[in-house]
TrEMBL record, chains A, B:
SUPFAM superfamilies: FAH, Fumarylacetoacetate hydrolase, FAH, N-terminal domain. Residues 1-14 have a biased composition (Basic and acidic residues). Residues 1-21 are annotated as: Disordered. This is fumarylacetoacetase. It comes from Paeniroseomonas aquatica. Pathway: Amino-acid degradation; L-phenylalanine degradation; acetoacetate and fumarate from L-phenylalanine: step 6/6. One of its GO terms (molecular function) is fumarylacetoacetase activity. InterPro entries: Fumarylacetoacetase (IPR005959), Fumarylacetoacetase-like_C (IPR011234), Fumarylacetoacetase_C_sf (IPR036663), Fumarylacetoacetase_N (IPR015377), Fumarylacetoacetase_N_sf (IPR036462). The lineage of its organism: Bacteria, Pseudomonadati, Pseudomonadota, Alphaproteobacteria, Acetobacterales. Residues 165-434 form the Fumarylacetoacetase-like C-terminal domain. The keyword Coiled coil does not apply.
């Protein structure tokens, strides 16, 4: 388990004032990695600090890194972070320590570093974000018992949890090619559905939903045929992001039996651009969920032992909705979900170990999402299907109602970890707006 | 639809004698692309001819290509064929025409080309094959009604076909990272299963199976959000290979509800190394399967019109089994499956159009497999689950029996297209042997 160190010191501040404001997502204790570009130019790696980005290539050129941090800094400057992820958490940690030193207010050379701000810092608002890594595989889990139970009850399925739910973290392979970064519009898909009268039709999705999830990027990974025991799983969890697993519910319901969701998911998946490292989240670890009495214990290969019992993470997750009417009248988005990652039945380590337990090779930059992160309360329902069951609309502050997402609706995901005695850190936003379906080509 | 041309001429022969032998998989009418390497050296692109490989890099250096074929030839020399696939079937066709000229016996310059054989040809037996492309995504379909019906009947599921089977080609995203080339051993996976008494256990797979499938490599592909109408699908079907979709049936049965197969498939998928181009298969096109009376017609976007009615392919597919006992006594492998790709309920074009119908972006080098290619007869059952239903063993010529694959068993897939008036072409072999499971790490 990652130990806390000077980079987590709650008293540490940056010479960049915007990083020290309360509720800033990117204080010096965070330092997430991402890939940005000036409009029309090539992507480059950077680290978020306050309202700015540390341009890693410029910082490397300025001679700010030496030794192991220099090797990692060069990887962090590349147009995709796969090589940095492949170097593992040790390299990321060495790099973090040096970046924290460069940016902190009380470093002996702070005045010199601050004088370089114009050269090495980029205003976040001036640039566009890109996918942080080339994503070779995208796996989506299904590990909130609350999400699972609500969905099955709404469809009249018994028992409330599938028989395997408590024995293994259920997952499916989703589509990596259609994962995209926050801010890109999401085209409403065409697809097949079965109508109430039994006939089957093809046309624009009539049940467009979002799903609020947490995702991880895989670090070094494993060779084909060689599993990852649970105690080694943390070495392969490189960083975290928010995931909106857009879901076309009418298409999903018709296509998913017997081989699972396919086109209902591959229309697009949006992720937040900043990858929060495992080390930055170390202060926010939490015990794994306590299983309800009577549930089976995990099989030995999935059982957290005493040293690993902090398998969970205490991360607040929110979804907000901005409709075209709200945007036109300059209203704020409305919060429609407030949940916490603590509610997941399985830990990320258990998900990773299960994933590789047959020898399946995980690779640097693979994206693994948790599944809809719903909790026990109504407020914590993390997708429209749970809120409306496809028939009972939610009412927004301006009086509008929604059963599913309409064209022009924008969903904004936010995530934040905070705990007494620590500086809270944020994930930034994951935004996506629904564009109207295309007419089928004549 | 690809027209036949001089490269298909059944009278055309090569100055390389091995290519002219009857039943040769790689006559001059075939010319499949692949990637090979000398032991310990870097991979390089080549084209199979008889018992040799045309080393594309050497052929390019020798000045044998000019114009569009030269551009394609350079892509065909690379260590992965993604760029060649991205160039589309037009470029592949121009390259094929030139390679056929270089290798044919009756070309005016044949003597000059033949004199270069030592330089540009590599003996197939001296080199190792590699994956032909970087596979960004692997999608597995489920489009044989015979396979589907036998499986559901064996499990007591009703109706014999899922309700959506006749409306859409059912598919799931499978795992791309564990796709490997013929000849690499396949490690028996560990995994979870539910025993007959209801308890759940983790350990070596007790139901290791194979699945005989045909696969295609995607050519140019589509942009996210923009579908591929059926009439355009052939432009994106670049080439064909054999696929062994290794399946762990006990793991599959326990994990697959509700989100489909996951670890039961990602242990490994083996493919044949040579990619037979769509143009090479043009003489073996066949009408799409005639749907049984009473089946619904495809919805308009999946309906082959008059010009596209030859959506099927007439390709013989076989699976052979070689047990350790048979190998020790130098027996030949035993053929356990003989089927034909004509039996599939959906065409490859329909699969591709369905896959992109929601806007999902297909990319050069994506692998799309047909699903187990079983036909109506007992001989055409294309996996062990259909043959044995998990309880009735098959008996091999030497008296051995099998319900599932045992450690050391090697499965060999073969494919061949032939038709009166044309020279038959083959796919080469797709081989894989089962290695014992690893003990779980202590």
């Amino acid at each position: 388990m990652t130990e806390l160190n000077a980079t987590h010191d709650p008293d540490r501040q940056s010479w960049l004032e915007s990083a020290n404001e309360p509720d800033c997502d990117f204080p010096i204790q965070n330092l997430p990695h991402g890939v940005f570009c000036w409009p029309g130019e090539a992507p480059r790696g950077g680290v978020a600090i306050g309202d700015a980005i540390l341009d890693m290539a410029t910082a490397v050129e300025a001679g700010l890194f030496a030794g192991i941090p220099a090797e990692a800094a060069r990887a962090a400057a590349e147009p995709s972070l796969n090589r940095l992820m492949a170097m593992g958490n040790g390299a990321a940690s060495a790099l973090r320590a040096r970046i924290s030193d460069i940016l902190r207010a009380d470093h002996p050379d702070a005045a010199r570093f601050a004088a370089m701000a114009q050269r090495i810092l980029v205003p976040m608002e001036d640039v566009e974000m890109r996918l942080p890594a080339g994503i070779g595989a995208f796996t989506d889990f299904f590990t909130s018992s609350y999400h699972t139970e609500r969905g099955r009850r709404a469809r009249g399925e018994e028992p409330a949890l599938p028989p395997n739910f408590q024995y293994l973290p259920i997952a499916y392979n989703s589509r990596a090619s259609s994962v995209r970064v926050s801010g890109e519009a999401v085209r409403r898909p065409n697809g097949q559905r079965q109508r109430a009268d039994g006939t089957v039709a093809f046309g624009p999705c009539e049940g467009q939903d979002f799903e609020l999830e947490l995702g991880i990027f895989v670090g070094p990974g494993n060779m084909l045929g060689e599993p990852i025991p649970l105690r080694a799983a943390p070495e392969h969890i490189w960083g975290f992001c928010l995931v909106n697993d857009w879901s076309a519910r009418d298409i999903q319901r018709w296509e998913s039996t017997p081989l699972g969701p396919f086109l209902s998911k591959s229309l697009s998946t949006s992720i937040s651009p900043w990858v929060v490292t495992a080390e930055a989240l170390a202060p926010f670890r939490a015990p794994a969920l306590v299983r309800p009495a009577g549930d089976p214990a995990p099989l030995p290969h999935l059982a957290h032992d005493q040293d690993q019992r902090l398998g969970g993470f205490d991360i607040d997750l929110e979804a907000w909705l901005l409709t075209p009417d709200m945007a036109a009248s300059e209203e704020e988005p409305a919060r429609i979900t407030r949940t916490n990652f603590r509610h997941m039945y399985w830990t990320l380590g258990q998900m990773l170990t299960h994933h590789a337990s047959n020898g399946c090779n995980l690779q640097p930059g693979d994206l693994i999402a948790s599944g809809t992160a719903s909790g026990p309360t109504d407020e914590s329902r993390a997708c429209m299907a749970e809120m409306t069951r496809g028939r009972d609309p939610i009412t927004l502050p301006n009086g509008e109602t929604r059963i599913w997402l309409q064209d022009g609706d924008e969903v904004i995901l936010r995530g934040r970890a905070h705990r007494r005695g620590h500086v809270g850190i944020g994930f930034g936003e994951c935004r996506g707006r629904i564009d109207p379906a295309l007419a089928w080509p004549a």
